[in-house]
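To close the chapter, one final illustration. This time we ask the reader to focus less on the individual chains and more on the assembly as a whole: which components sit near each other, and how the overall shape emerges from the parts.
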Amino acid sequence: MYSEKVMDHFTNPRNVGEIENPSGVGEVGNPVCGDIMRLYIQVEDGIIKDVKFKTFGCGAAIATSSMVTEMVKGKTIEEALKISNKAVAEALDGLPAQKMHCSNLAADALHKAIEDYQNKSKKAS
Amino acid sequence: MYSEKVMDHFTNPRNVGEIENPSGVGEVGNPVCGDIMRLYIQVEDGIIKDVKFKTFGCGAAIATSSMVTEMVKGKTIEEALKISNKAVAEALDGLPAQKMHCSNLAADALHKAIEDYQNKSKKAS
Amino acid sequence: MRRVYLDHSATTPVRPEVLEAMLPFLKDEAFGNPSTIYSYGREAKKALDEAREKVASLIGARPEEIFFTSGGTEADNLALIGTAAANEKKGRHIITSSIEHHAVLHTAQYLMRHGFKITFLPVTPEGLVRVEDVEEAITDETILISVMHVNNEVGTIQPIKEIGHLARERGIIFHTDAVQSVGKIPVNVDELNVDLLSASSHKIYGPKGVGCLYIRKGTRINPILHGGAQERKRRPGTENMPGIVGFGRAAELAGQELDSEMERLKGLRDKLIDGIMNRIEDVQLNGDREKRVATNANFSFRYVEGESLLLSLDMKGICASSGSACTSGSLDPSHVLLAMGIPHEVAHGSVRMTLGRDNTEADIDYVLEVMPEIVARLRSMSPLYNQ
Amino acid sequence: MRRVYLDHSATTPVRPEVLEAMLPFLKDEAFGNPSTIYSYGREAKKALDEAREKVASLIGARPEEIFFTSGGTEADNLALIGTAAANEKKGRHIITSSIEHHAVLHTAQYLMRHGFKITFLPVTPEGLVRVEDVEEAITDETILISVMHVNNEVGTIQPIKEIGHLARERGIIFHTDAVQSVGKIPVNVDELNVDLLSASSHKIYGPKGVGCLYIRKGTRINPILHGGAQERKRRPGTENMPGIVGFGRAAELAGQELDSEMERLKGLRDKLIDGIMNRIEDVQLNGDREKRVATNANFSFRYVEGESLLLSLDMKGICASSGSACTSGSLDPSHVLLAMGIPHEVAHGSVRMTLGRDNTEADIDYVLEVMPEIVARLRSMSPLYNQ
Ligand SMILES: Cc1ncc(COP(=O)(O)O)c(C=O)c1O
Ligand SMILES: Cc1ncc(COP(=O)(O)O)c(C=O)c1O
Ligand code: FES
Ligand code: FES
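The assembled structure is written out below.
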């Protein structure tokens, strides 16, 4: 059912964990199935230097979480904001139709983390 | 589906044919399926000396026709009148449920042939 | 004793190639439930998809338009009841023919008892539905037309394409029971203009207990069984994997051999028909001689009853079937022969012989040899017959 | 890699003895249609009768009370829709439980949409229907009670005998879906006081695509499929001969081995349950521990999602299933676990392991070895978990 890429990211997920004192955190719950993802970013000079995640969810949720962290690392905030659900699913060689909603988790968590970072920066400045 | 006895009487029916100038003839049509049987008897001194049949019908119809001719040969009219559908079916080691109606043909034809004989005798006397 | 099986329209043996394809699914190699996500299940899912492609390909459909059922009967029920339920707000009139298989006929009668109006179209003496009759029967209330492709008793090929054209023009859903045509004549759902089409595995050397309904994308139809989400929510129940895989393989082989077998069987059939007609008196061929599937011969022997003919044939090792009242549980002779205007007593003496892969020229010679004796013997017992 | 199949409640492999019994019907030895009168057909009829006897004998019924269907789903549909249709003049109220298989649940909902009133009984936190609840639910309008014998997800054994007693007293038709009990615990239709009982072949090492409905003599029920006169006019369609013969043989073997297998599997199951509960924290067993079939274990692992657990198990060669939302097409977690009052997030982390003939002590050891690592790994990824 899942592509090899999905299974690879599910089996060896990249960047699992937490960041202490992160620049931003985004947590989203998938309203469809009840799964949850938390994503941490460390931003330096407008560039995402580090990123970690924790996910409670299906294989696709874990794989998309892992994939999105890979895609975002080293990117600027502007570039990261452009990463869509679709892009994540495509990077994993696609997801089964009934699993497309899972990819929302990852991209949404990323965007929330960036939002959090931007809010914090605003307050700081 | 049919017993060995039925198949035997179907394959080698006894007393097939007609009797010229018979003492009595009975013809019945089976209202359920449309099959037809004609039975001829030759009576001498109140005893059925000879009997023949012709049947257009299923395996059970042919077998019961054959069986009834065997059962009746040499019997008195009184004895012959006692032969029931059930007795014919039993003599053949039974018939499948949906074929029980076929045994009516044979006994009915016999009783009609006897009736015909009795009517003729009455007229003659 | 020689055994000659001439009842291929009733059922066919499973081909060795088909059994071979089924075997892994009847062992612990590949027994998974295709709805599960682990490896066993994924293998099953793959096999299910392949079988669907093979069946689809035989009838020119897309795989996602094939819905597996437990056989032709269920497919017919789903087509009629499912369409009626989904479209009853549009209208409650259904058109079908008077020579359909009981799976359609009795389902139509069931719907009739539930408030649908059913037109049972008459047929010609040759056993053909007239397109004009369909046209005349259509009303604004008509939601479904169901006419079989090839008749199972007399083998006549109905004008499906033309009826489909009419149905399409009028926006009416069109179903054909193709249980007796699939694998025997070319069948293409687009050329035939059908929206729904029933097929059955055991008529084409696949296993019994599996069939399918083709449902053209966009056709409004409700399920008739309720449960799990299998078959894209249109037919619940754990999939009959060995059956479906066997059906797929049988469909594949049928497609490959269609042209050559059709040609060969037509030769045998013509030999059989001509042989019987030449050798025996007072016999008639039932069903149109030209618009007829290559596998079917159906005769009425006057003055003889069908069941006793069958029994006599069986004693010679020949398997056939009959339209006689005596072989049917209901004790009415074939509704198909009666609808063709054949009198009760003639229908009563009818025998159907249907050819298949295993039949040879020698089989036909054998039938032609024993048939005259059998008929003569039974006629000599018949009160209706005068030499 | 070791393969451990722990999804026997989803489906089972066909036993070699069963395949052997089926093979003649998948070759040209015995392919006849049992409705025909010639010798091929008579052989088939005989095999059909024998299979019917074997299935009847496993559940203490008479052969003529067994009606073969295409599986458990169709049997359930026939029981509910057929009874509803035949008895709707008497009343339109049906009682069932909220933990039925979808084959019953969705059929009940279908009837609800067609004017029937349905009571879906609640269950205890242990997954048991209360007899008092049934009693209270009965009205003068009640025509049918349908409660499953063994639940397919949590393995609980319902108080069928007591419910049957109630139903009998009140003259209400009583159906039980025994798909998960037949062949696993003793089932006797008279002791259980049931009028209708569904069973399925592929759950007891028979082939997929065949099952049966037991119909007690005298029970008013209509057919749901229409067509030929097979199965004493209650279920039309050419009989799935290989399937039915396989089901018969599987039933025979299940009966012979019932006691010994039950004992053996109970041992394995207890070892599995105790092992998991001892080795892993924050885990609960779902379903009553005592009133439970010997083959079922169902756990909820907190902080972990079921599908990712299944995938991880699959990578270790272990096949199981889950009640997680993520594995169900509908994206709701198991309706059974929810009905037991288990919170959504706990139900979400549930795994069902169901044992069978092929499982050994070593299998359980292996599961107990790998499971803790898997759970630990997933928990370490979980935002809900704090060591
Ligand atoms: C024309 C036709 N329709 C439907 C059926 C029913 O198919 P099945 O036996 O697979 O249920 C048959 C054969 O029995 C048939 O010949
Ligand atoms: C309790 C129960 N009822 C009904 C069914 C349906 O049986 P089948 O898959 O044979 O249609 C199943 C299994 O899927 C089941 O576990
Ligand atoms: S006499 Fe016609 S069915 Fe037997
Ligand atoms: S995130 Fe729940 S189904 Fe994938």
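Chains A and B do not touch (no CB pair under 8 Å). The longest strand of chain A covers residues 47-56. With these observations in hand, you are ready for the problems at the end of the chapter.
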